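Lab manual, section 2.4: Encoding a predicted structure.

Procedure: take the sequence of the chain (445 residues), apply the prediction step described in section 2.3, and record the output as structure tokens. A sample record is shown.
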Amino acid sequence: MPVLVLSVDMNGVVVLLPQIGHDLGVSAATAGAIVTVASLAFAAPLLLIGRIADKVGPRPLLLGGVIGFAVASFLCAITDTFALMMAGRALQGVASACCFTTSLAAIDALFEGPRQPVAVGIWGALGGIGGAMGPLVASLVADIWSWRWFFGVNVVLLAFGFVALAVLVPALPSDGTRRIPVLRLVLVLCGTAGVVGGIQHASSGGWASVGTVLPIAVGSLFLLGVFLLRRPDDPLVTPKVTRLGSFRIGTAEATLSNWGSGVVMVLVPTALEVIRGTSLLETGMIFLAFSVPFALGGLLSGPMIDRWHGRTVLGIGSGVMVVGITVLAIWGVTASLGVVAVGLAIAGLGNGVVYAGATSVALVDVPTGDASEASALLSMLRVLGLALAVAVSTSIAATIDQHAAAGTGLRVALLIAAVITGLGVPLASRHPWPMTSRDLPDTPR
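Recorded output:
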């Protein structure tokens, strides 16, 4: 429930920016900051949240995250000032990081054997379909009631979700002896916020602007400080995770596929509205062609991994994604709706398989007590991949469209996304995994 709600919220709010800006007395461009602040607040504290969750157990942070997201949604629903909206969105970002990381850790702890990839597949399918359907849900709610109800519905759904989680999720494994290196984790938080914020600004302000260069430079300095303060005897993420071949391959596959999905889910809807002239509601309906196959792919990933090796499933999913993205790149958004729907459906199906499959592969050998840290690192790299994809692709598309027919830049960006996503096919063929959890000692080498 919380993953579905936050996925709909984070992706649906984009279409409401003009209305929110008008009601709160700011421009649509300024209102776009509520998207950025939520993304930064989600990505930056992930490692810190993961370490805390492994120390105290995922359950308290999962329940706390649900409460935090509900409170933040209530603030966003009732606000009459842009400042309070920004505060609510920041709290939503932090709370969603708590829910996202710990929900995956809970699944990793509660399900074993062939049931685990099935459970992860359902988790990925719900989150994915929520993200893809966000614009449609937001436009429908805003048309029937107002944008405030888009946030208000969250409160009702999360109230039910909190009760269900409190009853169904037991106390999960924790390690009270685990240290929390506050200084280094705060540096990671600040560094990630700076780098992600700068990358996101590049999509609108350009790569040479102060708003892009300065945050990336400052963020990089913070991350350099993390490197200089590294302690082999107390790493930020245990080597029992980072040295796992399965974790490395799964994380790499997830990051590569996020490049393709980022371009499809962010640039294509905008192109449909600007180039093709579809309304928000029509765009949301068209994107059902992506979201429904995405959910199906997530549900199929578990049985596929159970039947075949995980690397085979990742290779198949990446290949299917490439085909779908290539169809969109060749014919563009001005083609018949049937062709656009086919391209979206193929890309969505492959993306669903890779999204859930990469998560299953990444966590398959991770010890239960380290699952929160592992899922936090996985999520952080996914966010960085998505932010970089959108910023670079938007910049490329805008530059090309200045000197070519409208839509040419999008096609080039889609072709680049197909190539980057396609790197997942040879990567998935690596065999055997370099290392499994059974080969690792309990202490860093």
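Check your result against the sample. Residues 431-445 have pLDDT under 50 and may be disordered.
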